[in-house]
Amino acid sequence: MTPTPTKSLANSDTASPAPSSRSSVETADAPTSSVPTAYVSDKADDSSKLRTFLSILRKFIGVADIASVRFSLPAQLLEPIPNLEYWNYLDRPETFISIGDSDDALGRMLAVLRFWFTKDLKYVKGKPCKPYNSALGEFFRCNWEVEDSLPSIVGDGPKVSATGEVSTEHRTVRVSYITEQTSHHPPVSAFWVDCPVKGISAYGFDQLSAKFTGTSVRVIPGAHNLGIFINLQHRDNEEYRLTHPAAYLAGMLRGSLSITVADTCYVTCPKSRIKVILQYLEEGWLGKTQNRVLGVVFHYDPENDNKSKIKEVPEKDVLARIEGCWQDKIHYTLKEAKDPQLLVDLNPLWPIPKVIPPENQQLSNESRRFWRGVTEAILNKQYGQATKLKQELEERQREKATARKDEGSDWKPRFFTEALRPNGKPNLSEDGRRALKGLQEGDYHLEECALMPA
Fold it and tell me: Are the C-beta atoms of 146 and 172 separated by less than 8 Å?
């Protein structure tokens, strides 16, 4: 197999300029196009806020999982954005919709990696931040509108709809997203991404576990977070599983937060029998951050998946090798090829704006509307008022939880069939399917649900 001569993602027409920090114009009856300010931070020094944050975190030294404690921070330490809006993997949706384009299985796996390295641009381009904690039953939905213009990486493949009847090349494609907080103890949300015209979807549960070491916070996937699952309908329902590595939030003592990754993660596709091992390297000599990643793409046996380190992979099974800086450029080298090829250049890329339902069509427990008062107060620097409103919302949630306990009633999510599932894959409910269909059609109407706790 040889790589198809292509331009890189960075040089394609989809590379975007840096958005301004005031990139959201919201009206009551029109969809909002928004890039949160947290995404476009200039990473300026914020040492006073960090000192306050550090003094709070020191109370949790030795606590096994501070994420499960759900402690309440004063409003001035929060970024004015709901967690469900902030936490998603579609910073560059055009990489997602192109995953199934190649007729070659290796090409599709490399496209998954292109998506993988662009999904968290918010951390590369902006500052780490603390959004609002999600309330049980809170939900967020949006669309992305992107041009289907990325080339296949290895192998040919026409850019067509899932039915193969309509060309999507250089046409605008809509990607829809819905996520709901399905559990409060432990805090877990379910999500679903759908692009019917391309026959691709992604789903999973998000949950973090965090521990404060005294100088940094170590963040790992929680027990219910088994990764991102991607399904390619028109590729005989190929399913990919992408697991998350551990990350470290450091820089608190010097007043400048940064994220480092030092762990191993995996991408597997049992149907194509191809697996990827990615190793994120630790800091270099004298503590200089490398942000480097090495990887190997290889044939594996799904029934005997016993390779967990790069060095364990026999050379005869290797299909390609990965190397680069996850905040800069990533290259791949095919087996027996001499020269590496550019997989993705992150430097000119910025998160793509979301298209969010108009305010007058958002439900009371929809993230933007639910936290609207707190957000407005923070943006106006009325931190006392913001903290007061935030505490009122949190107290209301506690009262409703107590009432459900007294009544012996169990809460159930609206858009997903179950709060948690042992295989890490949520199922959409009828309301969930209807909500995604509405997003695809630009119909944002949903009925308020009396059973919703928010």
Answer: yes
Helix (H) / strand (E) element for 231: namely: strand 228-232
Residue-wise pLDDT tens digits, 249-290: 877 666 667 788 989 999 999 999 999 999 999 765 555 557
Phi and psi based region of residue 360 (left: phi greater than 0; alpha: psi -120 to 50; beta: remaining): alpha
Both tokens assigned to 210: 């965090």
- Residue 358 contacts residue 29 (beta carbons within 8 Å): yes
Which amino acid is it at 5?
P
395 class by beta-carbon count within 10 Å (0-12 exposed, 13-18 middle, 19+ buried): exposed
Strand partners, 79: none
pLDDT band at 304; cut points 50, 70, 90: very high
Structure tokens at 147: 């041009």
Q: 345-376, pLDDT tens digit by residue?
A: 999 999 999 999 998 999 999 999 999 999 99
d(CA 21, CA 43): 12
**Alpha-helical runs (H) found in 154-213:** none
